[in-house]
Amino acid sequence: MSYAIIGLGKIGTAIASAFAGQDIEVAVAGRRPLEAIAAQIGPSLVPQRIEDAVKADVVILAVPFAAHRDIGRAAEDWQGKIVVDATNAFGVPPEALDGLPSSAVVANAFPGAKVVKAFNHLAAATLAQGPKTPGGGRRVVFVSSDDDAASASVAALVDQLGFAPIELGKIGEGGLLVQARGNTWAQLIFQDLARFD
């Protein structure tokens, strides 16, 4: 399976560092040149143009929420791909989202893709600390999707990166616990939890 991260801001860099820590190859792309930052993070990062990165099987959106539509237009066909939505729509009025969860709005920009919400609930500085917590547990990453197979696939990736995945179910059900609504953060956002195996 091939992976790409679109956006190497704070969240994207934290996720890319987790890939580098496990020596998993991942394409990285953004609006600015990323060669220098990718080289700093690790050799398993492969800088690409956005148009090439979106050809990956799993595309992680680590861009501001408002930019998701631009990324959606970067591929002719999203059929069968998994799009991991790591965005947060904090400050976006619910009426601007037609009352839908933000990930459901993201899904509309990626027709045919299986959208999975993940990597968005931790502050970037916390996520950048990596999968291990000071107490020796594995840092929890919540996963939510309307497609059970896609959710399981992303949960397996989260586990491979060293984090502890917890699946919350459908985006409009358990997934609401990790989605901002207007100026309100959901209950599980910013919760730095650990699992001890």
UniProtKB/TrEMBL annotation:
Keywords from the UniProt entry: Oxidoreductase
Pfam families noted in UniProt: F420_oxidored
GO molecular function: oxidoreductase activity
Family annotation (InterPro entries): NAD(P)-bd_dom_sf, P5C_Rdtase_cat_N, STEAP_metalloreductase
Signal peptide as annotated in the record: none
Record-annotated Pyrroline-5-carboxylate reductase catalytic N-terminal domain positions: 3-88
Protein name in the entry: Pyrroline-5-carboxylate reductase catalytic N-terminal domain-containing protein
Species of provenance: Paraburkholderia humisilvae
